[in-house]
Amino acid sequence: MLPPESWSAFLQIDHLVLVFLISLHVGCTAAATTIGITYSSSRVAAAANATVPAAPPLPPDRVAAAVYDLKIPAVRIPDATPNSVRAFLYSNTSLLLSIPNHLVPSLAANRSSAVAWLFQNVIPFHPRARISAISVGNNLIESHPDAVDDLLPAISNVDSSLRDLGIHHISVSTTFSFVSVMTGAFPPSSATFEEPLSRTLILPLLQFLKATNSSFMVNIYPYNLYRLRWEIPLGFALFQNASFMYRDDLTTGARYWNLFDMMVDSVVAAMAVAGHEDVPIVVAETGWPSSSQDRTEIDANGAYAEMYMKGLIRHLRSAAGTPLRREGVAEAYIYELVDKEVKHGGVCGRSWGILYPNMTRKYEYRLEFSWAYRLGHWGDMVVGLLLVMVGSLTWVI
């Protein structure tokens, strides 16, 4: 039997071999990532402090109209309500719904709670609303650490309830924060999930996601990592390609031209160590703040936010993927649609929206979330025609 130190060396070699094999995986066909947006009402922003007054939420129909006008193909709703889902009836917009963190313990303890949530937010609108996935909680590890043990049972109860109701195409997962679950981002090949979470939560979750054909969801903010690591160049975080703006992973031979890909591949490598490198990845939140009331955050400004959005969308639409995952992430949701009007003691936090609270555009650059944007309203007709053709082809096959 090998001594402990030899086992450690063996596991490290095994880790590197797995990542190397991923880097050679070129057989899959790359496709452009679905780019969506997050819309959360003001009451979510105020939830962290009950004394913070929440601005009245925008009418859901107005939000849906803005999404349609911007040609955004997917929307993530962190605080799903019947009205917010109803606004997208009979649209081609894919919806990712989230169940609030405070409901996780009750969902885990009683399956009837899962059924009740589904009957309120899903069943009345299915399939007229295109609900693609449900996230049970968002960054539960940080906000409700005492409920972490309830997460897997809650996910299982929601998934089982959907199946019992005859709904098989809505996947169920949960959303993590990158900085909460990852040991680091560089080099990506050395990244692993934090212990003991890796053993007690993430590994069994990956097994569940693999079995149910669901995705691993993670919030990836290059802005936050850039602030934590002074050695990261600003241009590297903002997709500003330059001949000298790259980082090499000597283990895999991969060259990185932006921080976003590096963070994604850190997740890919950690999943490989866990034995589930082929589980799809959904970036549930990403963005760059256009302002901050913290005067030390000088990089939170409109110019840099616009650079990040333009670079991110251009990169995702290119279908280039990442060095370790040629197909890239399955979906990515920009945070967020509308700035919050929430203040506490006269101080606002960061502003992340691509629209001002009055729903006017913040950036001169038109963010093209999909190729249909350039076609204008003709795009809807083309998409509809393609859907009919695909349906006819399916019947022929």
Architecture overview:
α1 (4-23) packs across α13 and α6 crosses α8 (151-164). The chain has an eight-stranded parallel β-barrel with strand order 1-2-3-4-5-6-9-10. It contains 16 helices and ten strands. The chain is 40% helix and 13% strand. With 397 residues, the chain is α/β, with parallel strands linked by helices. It has a single domain (4-366), classed as Alpha-Beta Barrel (TIM Barrel), CATH 3.20.20.80.
SSE order in H/E notation? Answer: HEHHEHEHHEHHEHHEHHEEHEHEHH
What does the largest sheet look like?
8 strands, parallel, barrel
Give the CATH H-level superfamily: Glycosidases
Query: How does CATH name the architecture?
Result: Alpha-Beta Barrel
Note the total helix count. Answer: 16
Here the CATH topology equals TIM Barrel
SS class: alpha/beta
Mean pLDDT: 85
How much beta, percentage-wise?
5-15%
Catalytic activity: Hydrolysis of (1->3)-beta-D-glucosidic linkages in (1->3)-beta-D-glucans
InterPro entries: GH (IPR017853), Glyco_hydro_17 (IPR000490), Glyco_hydro_17_plant (IPR044965)
GO molecular function, one term: glucan endo-1,3-beta-D-glucosidase activity
Transmembrane segments: 16-39, 375-396
Summarize the structure.
This protein is α/β, with parallel strands linked by helices and 397 residues long. The chain is 40% helix and 13% strand.
Any descriptors?
disordered C terminus, 16 helices, 397 residues, two-stranded antiparallel sheet, alpha/beta, 10 strands, single chain, TIM Barrel, globular
